[in-house]
């Protein structure tokens, strides 16, 4: 484990130390500094739809910024990310977040799922209506009607691989290597879903065609703003 961390630290050294300007003939642009990120969060034309690591290009800047801060501050935990970010300033992380948010992204084609008609109806009910009896808001109420996310802090749900979605739900429901001990609104929601519903949602989402754009923050109801207060307040001042 220590050996693998040393390898990652070696690859990331240019990014972690970029805040200090050193005389060099090599280019020192943000494009060059973030190349280390692409080792895991690969370019759109190289992404494997079964990969665990998510794409970060084109996601809302506030969301990316929050995740970087959470890794640095221990709210989420993954050792290579924690080490990479431990001495990075908020300002520099925001610059990185805004860089990746500005990048275009070509979404993969939908994947045909194997869900039954009853499972599809159940998922679509959760997506569009939620379940008030369990205090479950509709997925579209938070992530936008097109499920493309809400600027600047809520990510979209489409174009993500099944493996990543399943792992994220597992982390929210049970705790895991990529999730810290600080609960957020998604962890509370995920724990109210059954395992069968989680499995069906993680299969249904990659099968949906991608269309539409990020929604504006004004689509969120006052109840949802209150519910995810910690996420929204952390993104104050971020516009992308």
Structural descriptors:
240 residues; mainly alpha; Cytochrome Bc1 Complex, Chain D, domain 2; 2 domains; two-stranded antiparallel sheet; 12 helices; disordered N terminus
Descriptive report:
The protein is 45% helix and 2% strand. The protein is mainly alpha-helical. The protein folds into two domains: 2-101, Cytochrome Bc1 Complex, Chain D, domain 2, CATH 1.10.760; 117-229, Cytochrome Bc1 Complex, Chain D, domain 2 (Orthogonal Bundle). The longest helix is centred in the first third of the chain and has 15 residues, at 2-16.
Can you describe this structure in just a few lines?
This protein has 240 residues and is mostly helical.
SSE inventory with pairings:
Blueprint: H1 2-16, H2 30-33, H3 61-73, H4 79-85, H5 90-101, H6 117-128, H7 139-143, E1 149-150, E2 154-155, H8 162-174, H9 185-190, H10 195-204, H11 222-227, H12 229-234
Antiparallel strand pairs: 1-2
Helix pairs in contact: 1-4, 3-4, 3-5, 6-10, 8-10
In N-to-C order, the SSE pattern is HHHHHHHEEHHHHH
* Overall number of structural domains: 2
Output the radius of gyration.
Answer: 18 Å
Query: What characterizes the major β-sheet?
Result: 2 strands, antiparallel
- What is the strand tally? 2
User: Which overall shape is indicated by the principal axes computed on the Cα atoms?
Assistant: globular
